[in-house]
Amino acid sequence: RWVLGLECKGSRNFMSALRRAVEVDFKDKDKHKSQGLYLLTTGIPDQETHTISAYVAEAFKGLDLQLHVCLFSVTQGTDSSGIIPARYASPRETASAFKEIVQAANGRFHWFGEAGIFESDDITSIISEMEKAKNYSQKCAFLVESLKQRS
C-alpha cells in the first residue's frame, strides 16, 4: 500500500524499507494466515548481509511471513539514472547475499536478466519434482518388466 505513494530514489536502504514493512504495515499480521514480502531489486543493499539476515530471522520468527527476492541483473553500462550505489558487489556476490537473506526468511530467490533466468528456487523445485517422478517411473517400469519375466 505505502509503496504506491513512493517516488523512485537512489537509495538501497533495504533495512529501512524492511522495518517499515514489517513493523508498521504488518502490525495486523496476526489476522492474516499467510503473507509475503516481495523485493524487486537490481543491486545489493547498503547494509551488510549478516545484519539483514539476523534481523529477518528475528522479525519473521513465529510468523507465517516470507521474504521473496527477484534480482534483475542489468547489462553493464545501462544505468541511465547515473546513481552510484553506496555499496557495490558483482552480480554473483549480490545473488549470494540475497540467497542468504532469503534463507533466513524462509522465502524464495529468483535471479534473472535480459538473457533469461539465471537461478530460481521455484524452477529448481519443479526440476527436482520432475527428477523424482522420472526415477519413480523408471523403478515402476523395472518392476513391471521383472514381473513379466517371472510369468
- Beta content comes to 15-25%
Structural class: alpha/beta
Distance between the termini: 67 Å
Number of domains: 1
Give unreliable regions as ranges: none
Radius of gyration, taken over Cα atoms and rounded to an integer in Å:
21 Å
Order of helices and strands: HEHEHEEH
Which quaternary structure do these chains form?
Answer: single chain
Strand order of the largest sheet: 1-2-3-4
Which percent range fits the helix content?
Answer: 40-55%
What's the total helix number?
4
Largest sheet: 4 strands, mixed
Number of strands: 4
Protein name: VWA3A protein
Organism: Vidua chalybeata
Structure description:
This is VWA3A protein. It comes from Vidua chalybeata. The protein is elongated, with a radius of gyration of 21 Å. It has 151 residues and is an alpha/beta fold. A hairpin with a 2-residue loop joins strand 3 (109-113) and strand 4 (116-120). The chain has a four-stranded mixed β-sheet with strand order 1-2-3-4. 45% of the residues lie in helices and 17% in strands. It has four helices and four strands; from the N terminus they run αβαβαββα. It has helices spanning 14-25, 49-60, 91-104, 121-150; strands spanning 35-41, 65-73, 109-113, 116-120. The longest helix has 30 residues, at 121-150. The termini are far apart. The chain has one domain.
State the main characteristics.
VWA3A protein; 151 residues; elongated; 45% helix
Describe this structure in a few short sentences.
The chain has helices spanning 14-25, 49-60, 91-104, 121-150, and strands spanning 35-41, 65-73, 109-113, 116-120. By secondary structure, the chain is an alpha/beta fold. The longest helix is centred in the C-terminal third of the chain and has 30 residues, at 121-150.
